[in-house]
Amino acid sequence: MKILGIETSCDETAVAVVEDGKVVLADFVYSQVEHSEFGGIVPEIASRQQLRKITPVFETCKKAYDISPSSIDAIAVTRGPGLIGSLMVGLNFAKALSFGWNLPLIGVNHLEGHIFANLLADNSLKPPFITLIVSGGHTLLVRVEDWCQYTILGSTRDDAAGEAFDKVAKLLGLGYPGGYMIDQLAKVGDREFHRFPRSHFKKGEYQFSFSGLKTSVAVYLRDKSDDFRSQYLNDICASFQERVIDMLVTPSLNAALDHGIDLVAVGGGVAANSRLREAFVERAAQKGIRVLFPAFKYCTDNAAMIASAGYFRLARGEQSDHSLVAVPYLPLA
Ligand code: KG4
Ligand code: ZN
Q: Could you give the angle at which helices 179-186 and 274-285 cross, rounded to 10 degrees?
């Protein structure tokens, strides 16, 4: 079964074709660049750009794979969570195609897509496993009971992990989005340079909290000169990043051990962090746990993961009708 995937939940416009939920036949992502000067996503600009880009992105993807009513079997589209204006662009595009081409439509949860990005990396992946979703808007620890069946184990009490990266990057004057910049600068920084505080939770509580860490970076920087900041930029990035990583890895591995599960699959933009990948694998191996990451390009928002999730939803006999609406705060389970 060949599924056309469409993703427009935030500032990426993406179209892909995936076979049987596992094999990517074509995929194309356009990332908006207009937000960097504002230090964050401007929803009105995001939706306007989605509207401008959806048809060109679809046409570009069509050059790689001849998308037509006879060459694809169904259309999967992100219906939430995300920015309402952005979501509506992809959703209406998908509905129009489904109506005009008389093809089944399936609405997909964006967070579920981030889980399925791992299946694109390892076609043999099978539940049950623990998954950590770390993106700009979400930090969720989930037990995947079966495909499309989830138990939420924990989430963030305040900021998402990616949001913490972006806000600290802004404090350091690194521009938006900042996760990638911090990752690069931290590579040659001293992780022990400064010990930023970590949040503590009771045993068995798989919770996350990053706003205290962000504030402690702000307080730390308050009386530091520009010279100091630029001289120790790499070290500050590495020290901050190491704290975030510890706060992500520890609850994830505890959850796996407590649930007797030996596989953790990570997804979302922050899963692209090179040090997170290295530290996670290292610490998990000490406990006999395997960690899986999507390929870099499937960590951040893309439509291949949406097509993959859509395939499994359709395989369960689910289908959406044309009254499907976008839901900005759509929960995973
Ligand atoms: O999944 P995603 O593309 O969009 C959302 O669904 O939110 O994630 C974007 C987030 C941003 O906060 C960005 O700073 C972060 O992922 N990110 C990274 C890295 N690459 C992207 N964070 C840390 N290290 C990276 N290499
Ligand atoms: Zn995302």
A: 70
